[in-house]
Every structure is written in structure tokens, then in C-alpha cells.
Amino acid sequence: MISLLQRVSQAHVIVDGQTLGQIGPGLLVLVCAERGDSEAQANKLLAKILKLRIFADDAGKMNRSVQDLDGLGTPGGLLIVSQFTLAADTTGGNRPSFTQAAAPDEGRRLYDHFVTQARAAHPIVQTGQFAADMKVHLVNDGPITIPLRVA
User: Fold this and answer.
1) Strand, coil or helix: what is 105?
2) Alpha-carbon distance 115 to 132, whole Å?
């Protein structure tokens, strides 16, 4: 699975003029299932995201995870948004190929699994809508943007 994390001071996602999910400080998690991925990859990716130390400690060093923020009185949120375009292959020309992305049914199943596991492990989880035309608004904090891929 592939993910692109953006540390945000706030983010929200809109579908058909309605705000579906919104968070304050935390992580915007763009996630894509690839062909051959399973729940094991989704679980591994989530575990990495929850423990990744990309938030500042008292000394200003990136030493806290999104989970560590919870104990500081400012819970870090997760806004999880499906984005199959993370699997884009641009090596063959100017039009991206998405053949490495999981088939839609499998992508939805793994996305739903990822969200379910995130909600079981973290207090603040919001989402977009799988396969919808979404408008994602964010204030990137840092800016900090981290690509992650697990096999």
C-alpha cells in the first residue's frame, strides 16, 4: 500500500458541497491500495503512520507521533482519503497509467479495512468518500509531507 502523509494544522474534505470529514492538528492520510495488497499491508501501513514521529516536541524536534499529541491535551486527528492516483506510473509517456492500483472493489475493501482499524486504534478519525470527486482543503504544517509504501 502507498500513502502520502501531510502534517496539517487543519484539513477537511468536501463531496457534493457537503463537508464529510474535518480535523484540526493531525495528519491528512492519502492512501492507495495496489494490486496484490492485503490486510497485512494495510495494518503495517497504519502502524507506521500512528508511530511516525513528525510532530515537534518541547525542544522543537520532530519527536512526537500523532498518537503522542493525544496525551498533550491536543489530540491529533487523522483525515483518511482514498487516492488511487498515488499508484500512477509515468514512465511510459505523458499520460499516467494506473494499472498498479488495486481493482475498485478490492481497493474499497482494503480502504474500508484501513479505516476500521484506524478507528479502533486512534480517537479521532475522519474520512472522505471512496471513489468520489472530493475537494480536499488543508493547511500543511511545516510543510511536512512524507510518502510511505509498505510491501
Assistant:
1) helix
2) 16
pTM score over 0.90: yes
Name the amino acid, one letter, at 117: Q
DSSP per-residue letters across 36-53 = T--HHHHHHHHHHHHH--
Count CB neighbours of 52 within 10 A. 18
Set of cell numbers at residue 78 = 487523522
**For 74-99, what is each residue's pLDDT tens digit?**
779 999 999 999 999 999 989 999 99
Whether pLDDT at 113 is above 90: yes
Please indicate whether residue 74 is annotated as part of the active site: no
Is 84 marked active-site?
Answer: yes
Q: Which of the following is catalytic: 6, 84, 117, 127?
A: 84
Cβ(149)–Cβ(39) below 8 Å: no
